[in-house]
Design brief:
binds glyoxylic acid; 14 strands; 328 residues
Length: 328
Amino acid sequence: MTGAPRVLVTGPIPGPALDVLREGNVDGAPVIVDAWDGDEPMPRAELLQRSRDCHGIVCLLTEQVDAEVLNACGPQLRVVANVAVGYNNLDVPAIHEHGAVATNTPGVLTDATADIALALILMTTRRLGEGERVIRAGEPWKWAMSFHLGTGIAGKRLGIVGMGAIGRALARRARACGMTIAYSNRRPVDPDVAAALGASFASLDELVSTSDVVSIHCPYTPDTHHLFDAALLARMRPDAFLVNTARGPIIDEAALVDALERQIIAGAGLDVFEHEPSVHPGLVHRDDVVLLPHLGSATVETRTAMAVLAVRNCLAVLNDEPPLTPIR
Ligand code: GLV
């Protein structure tokens, strides 16, 4: 590479990651960092304009990197490093066709996201958000045998849709809570892994119709768009709960509202939404749902680790080294 490489960072990232980028060099030349630090996601026009002539993009999941952005960058673009494990915001085939490398951040957010999935399981089954609202609203309450009863999870069956790293981390947590684990996946996981997790394989149809709680951990792709549609929701049991910490559009939100309204399922815990940051108005006032604002990886430690990994991926590619976590 001739001259100093330019890297566009599309949003505010933790200081330690910016330091790694600013202290990094490529063929002895310091990296020129252009970082968007607005509170709002970078406007599209700004993204297109500031992409021009950059060699690397470190991007947040709020930015779509597609053919238009790649063309705005020009041919010298070498790497698009997503600060997220999910990469439905990247047009990966277009990035590869452009001759650039795409990377994501698997591994570092596994525990944080599994924690939020377990939190949503407990919040929905034990009606914790609802309980907190009683107190905050100043409503009268007192302990009573039948006051605010929820559903216990020990001895219940958790169905995990997508047994990747986060699904497995949730399985370990749920086992510690006394749940039995079933999972569906494109293919069964290694038998030793399944045995260690005490997890049994099931078809998606069987999984949703036999689980007390179904938790979604698959990637969002054209194949999983509205995977949970009216038909699949109707296969769930009326006393079952649905949890989603993956991506919103995996659930048809209108169909979910209808399923809740008609008591086809008992409740839902959602950290992600179909049209994020909008939330379907039919969900907002329901007591049988718990709604979190996409907090899966939102810890100081995890966000720092994600951003540092993304920056290291970016620097590796610019230095003609293999990226740590490429998207193939
Ligand atoms: C967060 O949602 C991620 O995909 O990293």
